[in-house]
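Table S2 (continued). Query chain:
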Amino acid sequence: MNKFIISAFISVLILGSTAVFASGNKESALTPIRAQDLLNLMSCKDKKANEQVKDRVNGTKVTCGEVTKKTASAVSANSKASSSGGGY
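Corresponding output:
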């Protein structure tokens, strides 16, 4: 009986902690950015606005100026939201 109670307690702790990790993004104050846009922004980091890079998701050519324009509002909002400077 004691083994059953201990195993039930441990399983509740494990299931409770994974549920917290899975729902952490819903409560975040950061503006969501698509992964495709983030990858394009990273590849355009050291490039000029008129240069083109290959999209890593679908292989099309995108202009760095368009990518930075598309993600500028979300990136600036995220930098203001996470001004605490801390991690977790």
